[in-house]
Write a structure and sequence with these properties.
Radius of gyration: 22 Å
Order of helices and strands: HHHHHHHHEHHEE
CATH topology of the domain at 64-116: Arc Repressor Mutant, subunit A
Strand content: under 5%
Strand order of the largest sheet: 1-3-2
Low-confidence stretches: 121-195, 200-252
Largest sheet: 3 strands, antiparallel
Structural class: mainly alpha
Helix content: 40-55%
DNA sequence: AAATATGCCAACCGCCGAGGA
DNA sequence: GTCCTCGGCGGTTGGCATATT
């Protein structure tokens, strides 16, 4: 079968909404499936990346704190470029973010070191790092997570509803910042959600592309879609939940 | 004010391992 | 045991924003 050419490049807000909606519906595991079901002309990989690095509700934005910097330095000296592993110890930070951070800041630091070395004594840039730890640093494990209890950041389940977060992102135009995470359940009507999507499709001039596949279920050959409430709750700790009585969505 | 350099970040690419057929 | 698909990971690149000259 001739696969349609996958879309590449920056994601539109409409695509983000679409992806977030379907991730909340089906969970964040089967990315190929999600890519198909959602009607997005993206690869599963691309969807996963977008979710993990940008749309995930638990994401922290903004500058690294000194504690985070210290932790990155320490973990990198321990594990090297195992960014995903390091990221697991920094809740809300992605491997990509840490990788980028390391590249820019450490490159700069290395340059500075080189300058310093020229004037002081010869030493590796890491000896510099270790002195950084020993000095003024309290316990580096400021976020104690045991190996067993290690929560994979990529698992679905953040504090902020996707719709809420995307709205915030739209309001703040990309830079989410350290906004207060949603502490209470928020209720959206179907109309609100779809209005958002419709607005976006108008803005982006999507030329009447359907947001949803004609019948969603034709993409769901898999019995896992029919789970008990309990199973579903476990799998999707946070999702849109349709209230039949007043036709609203809960995000919880 | 314009040109250039640098910083930052999103996204792609290719490789690898796990799991299923 | 082999092949295939998919997800995850690390490296890299491209483009936009900001700073500097």
């Amino acid at each position: 079968m001739a696969q349609e050419e996958a879309r590449k490049g920056p994601w539109s807000e409409q695509e983000d909404l679409q992806l977030a909606f379907y991730v909340n519906l089906f969970g964040d595991r089967r990315w190929d499936f999600l890519a198909k079901v959602s009607g997005l002309k993206r690869t599963g990989k691309s969807c996963r990346l977008r979710w993990v690095n940008y749309l995930h509700p638990g994401l922290k934005r903004g500058k690294m704190t000194p504690q985070e910097e210290r932790l990155i330095l320490e973990l990198h000296s321990k594990w090297g470029n195992r960014w995903s592993r390091i990221a697991r110890k920094l809740p809300g930070r992605t491997d990509n973010e840490i990788k980028n951070y390391w590249r820019t800041h450490m490159r700069k630091k290395a340059q500075d070191d080189r300058k310093n070395k020229a004037s002081i004594s010869p030493s590796s840039s890491f000896s510099n790092c270790s002195s950084y730890f020993s000095s003024n640093s309290p316990d580096v494990e400021f976020m104690p997570i045991t190996e067993n209890n290690e929560r994979n950041f990529y698992d679905t389940g953040g504090l902020l509803g996707v719709h809420e977060q995307i709205s915030l992102q739209n309001a703040g135009k990309k830079k989410v910042g350290d906004q207060e995470k949603g502490k209470s359940m928020k209720v959206y009507s179907m109309d609100e959600i779809w209005k958002d999507i419709e607005l976006l499709s108008e803005e982006n001039d999507t030329k009447n592309k359907p947001i949803l596949p004609s019948t969603m279920w034709e993409y769901c050959p898999d019995s896992t879609l029919w789970m008990t409430d309990e199973e579903e709750t476990k799998m999707f700790p946070q999702f849109y939940c349709l209230d039949n009585q007043d036709n609203t969505f809960f995000i919880g």
